[in-house]
Amino acid sequence: MANRSVTTESAPVRWLLIGLAIVILTLFLLLPLAAVFIEAFRRGSEVFIKALTEDAALSAIKLTLLAAGISVPLNTVFGLAAAWLITKFRFKGRSFLLSLIDLPFAVSPVIAGLVFVLLFGARGWFGPWLKANDIQIIFALPGIILATVFVTFPFVARELIPLMESQGSDQEEAAVTLGARGWQVFRHVTLPNIKWGLLYGILLCNARAMGEFGAVSVVSGHIRGKTNTLPLHVEVLYNEYQFSAAFACAALLALLALLTLGLKSLVEHLSGHSAKGH
Hints:
The chain is mainly α. Helices cover 79% and strands 0% of the residues. It has helices at 11-40, 45-53, 55-88, 94-106, 109-120, 127-132, 141-151, 154-167, 170-177, 182-211, 214-220, 230-239, 243-277.
């Protein structure tokens, strides 16, 4: 039997939809991305490299990588634990926990940053105690990490929960019946089944961590060379009319995003082959 199309639209309609999608993607994605790289290299590669190697830029790059390097592992551990708890057990408050996990999606990052200022700022709830003990959270690295952890909170958990629910608990129960302990079950049964979903969630979490602006902007204090992450450094340079340097740093962020996209596509490809193999 010849293959039949599952759609009823005529060929002109399908080509019109495809063309419309291409035009929209070009206008709102490809052209802005191309403009970033064109502006970054407009004055030559020397200006580009100089913009990325000045002290303030290097500090911003290091701080961005540090914040992502701390927040992503923390949220990976939490995501695994939360997904395991929600999918393997039924308990009171399960729906409430799911709602809490989704909270960063519903709350503006700027509001999240203001909440941390209210809690840990000089005039915040814990501000006097922190000052008395010479602990600084707001306008320092701890505040940036807290803000980054909050906005990237759901990504790993939300990637794993539907995956683990669809897989069920039959394999884990069989392993327990055969005498495996909890850690052995997780290591040899659960983790191999969720590894691609876990990697996918980590990549999304890392991309958001490196590109976060709103919450980090509120808690950082914009101290140049100390608390400015790379997105904040781009804003500072642009406001100072250093357009070539601003676009150079923006191009670096875009390259990191493209690298993440490439890794994400690779994970999807490998997970698809893995699924076919089973």
